[in-house]
Amino acid sequence: MADQNAQLGRARRRLSVSGWSVGAAIIAALVLLPIVSVGWIALNPTENIWPHLLSTTLPRYLSNSLILAVSVGGITAFVGAGTAWLVSMYRFPGAGLLEWLLLLPLAIPAYVGAYALVDFLEYAGPVQTALRDLFGWQTSRDYWFPQIRSMGAAILVISASLFPYTYLLARTAFREQSGAAFEVARTLGAGPWRRFLSVGLPLARPAIAAGTAIVMMETLSDFGTVDFFAVQTLTTGIFSVWLQAGNAGGAAQLASVVLILIFVLVAIEKSSRRHLRHFQAARHVRPVTRITLTGGKGWAATAACALPFAIGFVLPTGVILSHALRHPDYWIDPGLLRALWHTLAVGGIAAGVTVTAALFMVWGMRQTGRGLPRLLLPLTTIGYAAPGAVLGVGLLIPMAAADNWLADVVEDMTGRDIGLLMTGSAVAIVYAYAVRFFAIAQGAADAAMGRVAPSLAMAARSLGRSSGGTLRSVYVPLMRGSVGTALLLVFVDCVKELPATLLLRPFGYHTLATRVHEKASLEKIGEAAPAAMLVIGVGLAAVLLLARTNRDKAA
Questions:
Q1: Predicted confidence band at 373 (pLDDT cuts at 50, 70, 90)?
Q2: Is residue 540, in this structure, part of any structural domain at all?
Q3: Cα–Cα distance between 93 and 82 in angstroms, integer?
Q4: Per-residue DSSP letter, 288
Q5: Which of 235, 207, 193 is nearest to 76 (CA)?
Q6: Residue 292 pairs with which residues in a beta bridge?
Q7: Are the CB atoms for 64 and 232 separated by under 8 Å?
Q8: Could you give the CA distance from residue 161 to residue 496 in angstroms, rounded to a whole number?
Q9: Does residue 490 sit in the same domain as residue 534?
Q10: 291/333 same-domain check
Q11: pLDDT tens by residue, 404-417
């Protein structure tokens, strides 16, 4: 009888509906809605222009996107892995400082770097002006200078902005390798290049591949840089087909191509690591003994690490800062103040909503023990891989339909026109940010909860605390640091996000990112500079937090 009662109890628990399971399913559905919407609209367009795209612009969009992604991926893999190897394996002048300075380019959005590079190298910029003064040239016909607004410049700017992704992962991988392996290689006569190619690189390859995959996904999603350099990619094509041609179905079809490329990149990255296994031979691994480089070799290593930092951080920050200081009156422009308020409001709300939803979902997965939340949790990270332009297409159309339906219902019932509540306000932007950066908050919440001893939750439940009460009174206080970090990282990414904001913002609604883009597109770098410096400042806060976290882990 007791066994039968126990079986009946288990059966009832399996059949019963858990509030945590329902909540997790709703959150997952909201996160996945834009992706599903893009696929549905692409397969059911009101006007099918797919044959026209195939025969005209799609080959150019696709080839440019692939060239850009492969080139940037290759450069960032080379620069990121190379600089990580140098700072991890050698001592040279400035190595300790450069080890952290190489993270700073992450604070510079690629589109800000693009505006700075053009301003620095254009005909009226300081470089060409100095050359004309030095050699006595009068016009551009007197000398040759590389074309600034080109595919090559776009590759350079995006690579300089994104190489820290690969650098950070590769540096961690090199640091975790055993010094004994390199000592054995040295005793067998292997030189520096042989040790790198035969020992260091194979063991760090999964980390380098992961960093390069992230870089290539970010490259495919870039809009501000390629638009400024007039490089036609799939992302710029989405804007052109939708906003200029007015064809949402065609934009969704281009967005689906971007998604397919993203999924292919993820699959290739996972496949490349599938058969790679590396185990430490001892519990306490002997750290790598750094080799001291002196003379010319040491200064060459310093220059090799300083150059990416100079191009990725010093140059754009210096150019933008000079414009910002040259025009102090632009700092009190009403448009800038409104953009700052909008950025703080939507970024703060989106960060709060995203982290709260992530906490709910991760806690619910741990509490229910059911298969549904565990199945849905990995799927919710897909939004981070989806470019902002894709999310814009997937969100605006269903939200606009829901807005119009709701307005019609309310008008029929009350006779009052309430307008568009979601697409006519910043709600759509907040929604897009939450979907785009949900993976960051979810990862932070999952890692933080895993560090809390389960016995604390058991003690709270034995004292009569509910599941939600245990989360509020036990877990959240212990996770305060991780929750704060997640809030900051999500907020920073919201501040820098450009494509989704451009597509989903109401008319006349500006954030710092859209103000920078608009002013720089009109060649008003001086007016764009204050907003760009604010974006850089917010990005620096996140990078410094990242550097501090990595320093604590290294210690």
A1: low
A2: yes
A3: 17
A4: P
A5: 207
A6: 91
A7: yes
A8: 13
A9: yes
A10: no
A11: 888 888 878 887 87
